[in-house]
Batch of 2 targets.
Target 1
Amino acid sequence: MNPCFAIIDSNTLECMALRNILWDVFNGVELYTYGSMETFIRDSNRHFVHFFVSSDILFTDADEFETLKNRTTVISNGKNRPCEDSGFKVLDVSLQEHDILQELMYLLPTGLYAETPARLIDTKGVTDKLSAREKEVLTLMIKGLINKEIADKLAISLPTVIFHRNNICLKLKTRSIGKMTVYAVLAGLIDINEI
């Protein structure tokens, strides 16, 4: 049985976007989205390992999540954030995609990742398949360098960079820079502060 994450947010687009990001990050996790607490409560027979709850819903139903703080991340749009000493982790979805991913990466070691079985984020075996040069290219890709910049930095040709990028995508079985970032951070190829 795969672990379940709940996304509870009345904003359908936020739900869809976060669900797609989480699918990129976690393999095999079951994600359920709910537009209100009422629909979530009706479907509460699942065992959720983590909850992503909009700040609006949290403010109106705080009692429901008070005992689940260590497994709850508040989805904030940059304005309605819980106070710093509330004990809730916060994911600001008003940021750029790269910054959202970085915030999500900070959440992983502080509880969300600890609650997730290692098989869902199997980075060691996959990144061991990468050559030393592919690891260098991957690290520079994650830092935001374009192909020409990577070629200049590593003193290799542009076609060689493209060749390495294609190999990385094949070996990691993804073209998502978000998923590649997760692999690299969790495998220790890059520090989250370098992103």
Target 2
Amino acid sequence: MTTLRPAHEADVPQLVDLVQAAYRGSGGWTTEEHLVTGTRTDAGELHAMLADPAVTLLVLEEDGALLGCCYTRRDGEDEAGRTRAELGLFAVHPSAQSRGLGARLLDAQAELLRGEGIEVLMIQVLQARPELHAWYERRGFVPTGRSVPFAGRIDDLRVDGLGMDIMELALQSA
């Protein structure tokens, strides 16, 4: 049975391994190893997330193994007065992909945010990944036409100038 729950400090070592496998490992359709090298996250970043009251880090666990995770960070209001949150560190272990776990994680985060009155969920998606853009679009995210520079170490990019496209999901009915 798969359990969805908030992450705990004791999960950090497994989370580091899970995220690295999903983002930088070989195998699985979410890998970025052909575009980005290096470490995707580390224990310090995860401990900081767990200590931040604006962050909710959820994990999917099955028989003691972490199979997926994602966080949301509440950002407050934008210039139009809409309450916003960012989705990130969204990973499903390559061995557990294509089981609907990513959709389950996304739905759980969205439901939590809706309950708090958050109006917009934003994600930054690595450019040159049309399959990821399409996955998010199938779940209601809309491209904004805006992009930002790659947030990690520029030296880790295997493609010069690669950035992040911003997509948004409306969480509240207009």
